[in-house]
Amino acid sequence: MASKRTRRASKASAARGKRAGKARPLPAERRAQPKGAINAWEDDPGAGAQPSGGQVIQRPVPVLRDEPFPTRIVKPSSPPVAKLHSPGTAEFRYWTAAEALRRGADFWGALLPGVSWEVGSILPVNLDFGVDLNAFYDREGLKFFHGSAAGRTVFSGESPDVVCHELGHAILDSFKPQLFDAASMEVAAFHESFGDMSALLSALQLPSVREGVLAETGGVLGRASRLSRLAEQLGWAIRQSVPSAVEPDCLRNAVNTFFYRDPDTLPTTAPAAALSSEPHSFSRVFTGAFFEGLAGMLATTDAKGEAALLQVSKDMATILVQGIGAASVVPTFFSQVAASMLGVAASQFSSQGYEVPLRSGFVRHGILPPAMAFTVARARAPRRTVAVAGGLPQSRTLPTLHLSVAEYGLGFPSIVVYAAGEPKRLQVAGAALAVGAAPSPGEDQAAKSFFEDLLRRGQLKIPGGAKGAAEMMRASAPLTHETHTHELRREGGQMVLRRVRIDCWFAHH
Amino acid sequence: MPRIKQQALKTELADRGFESVSIKRELPGGRVEVEANKLHPVHVEGGEAVYAPIPMSLSVELDARGRVKSIAGDTPNPAAVADAARYLKTLRERGQVSSAAEQPAPASTHRIERDEQGRLVLRRKRFSIS
Question: Which of A19, A121, A144, B4 is deepest in the core (most CB within 10 A)?
């Protein structure tokens, strides 16, 4: 208890200092940059499914005690000589952790002026707290571990991905402290997602990562890559003892197809291939939507190159920080943050056109329903009206149905669909999650569900006039050809939903 | 609109049982929107209630001197209380919560401990990478 009071007093003291006009030194006012360089891992010691193969880069000597967000490595207690050490040495591990800490702190500090750590003025970091395949943030500092797997010793603090994930917890705790203790499944999962987003965005501050990932993905950021795969080496180590606990090639992958479910309906734990209410597992829904939004944002830029990726990463972080700040802390926290982020994108980044790709990510991962996602930004979208009248050639195979779609902002109140409205031969339905059969939807509800599903999956091509309001981007879609399966066509004065192709699901999810 | 003395307001709200207080914005009519957690019973173990921090959004009315005059929204939302109860249940099922008397398990992220008022309270101790 005494230590807690000390920590609180330290934070309060820092706050008093700020109120009294004690200016926090700006990065530009830093002490002189030490000469020389150190070696560090780019993002992780591992690569894909392997525990080794990470890229070594040279970086300036980091100064941890500098603002913003100063840190201090307390174990080892004194820094080794700053020079180009070889991987596999304790000296290399020290400097690679220090480099990641400094980079992450600089990145988030630029967005959070005047904010200090929840633990006090300096965040203590222990690079070897004991034996475990894990890493922690508590309100004392960051703690990393070492552990053995298949004859190899793995140090979690050696991975910049892991360091920037834990640092992300501390950063989020500094500007939204209410989340730390909140007894809520989605809030806990969001904290984990923020850790992963911190690792992703901090990695993108390195030119070599930006160049590497663009080369690896052919410029389509939404594809799985060294960037989307988090903590490959730690994932490998955990996989040696519990293969189902992690992804096949990393700890978690930000490129995923997990769709939002009420966490109360999910199992408490599950293999990595499935979703559970466990916070790390459930966090992947938000991280997946975020990453898809990020990829889509890059796709909206003219250059789509390394410099554009750097700017998009900074813009996304701005949207994220402000969205979190504005979001109410409620059980459905994911949707609160997502809606707030869309509001920030619409109001502050309208000229960049970030809103559509961001909304697409949230809708395609089920964090926001399409109509609700549209409503968030409806105040800014021009209303368009298209008269719908006239006859329609009837299908010989299925009855047609007029479906109200006014809430999606397409610019016309209804469309015509070919509904699955034939009489049932057998009274059967799909299984419910819990017990028995799921309720059978009526034909109009089924058609509406189908239509909304097309929107969510970005499989619907919408005619030009209504495009901006409701179209969903798929960041992983090829640039050279269309892959949507359906389109809205004007036929006889009405908008008709038509299938244009059948695709392979796995190709461009 | 009285000038908000943020630290004084946080201290006053802390005295009234609110934790992790964040002042979001000023509202019309001398009110301030505040986010905070408040301990609320969510479960009973061995005949004794276990409290958990419930996120809340408050509208605090200030008097001319900037002191708390009234608080609206200081009753936890039933949905948030239910969420907290489910959260505690899943922590139990995953072995992530220990009691103050126990040695924390490696996977433990939370602890149920007795506070200064003698209540059993669920507290997060740390976040982990996996």
Answer: A144
Start-to-end CA distance of chain B, whole Å, equals: 47
pLDDT at A502: 57
Give the Cβ contact number of residue A310 at 10 Å.
Answer: 15
The pTM is what? 0.81
What six digits make up the tokens of B44? Answer: 């009973």
Backbone angles phi, psi at A368, to 5 degrees: -125, 135
Residue A168 phi, psi (nearest 5): -60, -40
Q: In the Cβ-directed half-sphere of A408, how many Cα atoms lie within 13 Å? A: 26
Chain B residues touching A177 at Cβ < 8 A: 20, 22
Helix (H, G, I), strand (E, B) or coil at A60: strand
Q: What is residue A57's three-state secondary structure?
A: strand
From the CA atom positions of chain A, what is the Rg in Å? 25
Q: Is A308 left (phi over 0), alpha (psi -120 to 50) or beta?
A: alpha
Amino acid code (one letter) for B67: R
**Cβ distance of B129 and A278 shorter than 8 Å:** no
- A281-310: pLDDT as tens digits: 999 999 999 999 999 999 999 999 999 999
* CB-based contact B37 A182, cutoff 8 Å: yes
CB contact (8 A) between residue A181 and residue B19: yes
| Interface predicted TM-score of the whole assembly (ipTM), two decimals | 0.84
Contact B125 A138 (CB under 8 A): yes
User: Are A341 and A320 spatial neighbours (Cβ–Cβ below 8 Å)?
Assistant: yes
> Which residues of chain B neighbour A278 with C-beta distances below 8 Å?
90, 94
Which run of H or of E encompasses B111?
A: strand B110-114
3-class secondary structure, A70:
coil
For chain A, say whether B93 makes contact (Cβ under 8 Å): yes
A180 chain-B contacts, CB cut-off 8 A:
20, 124
Tokens of A177: 């402290």
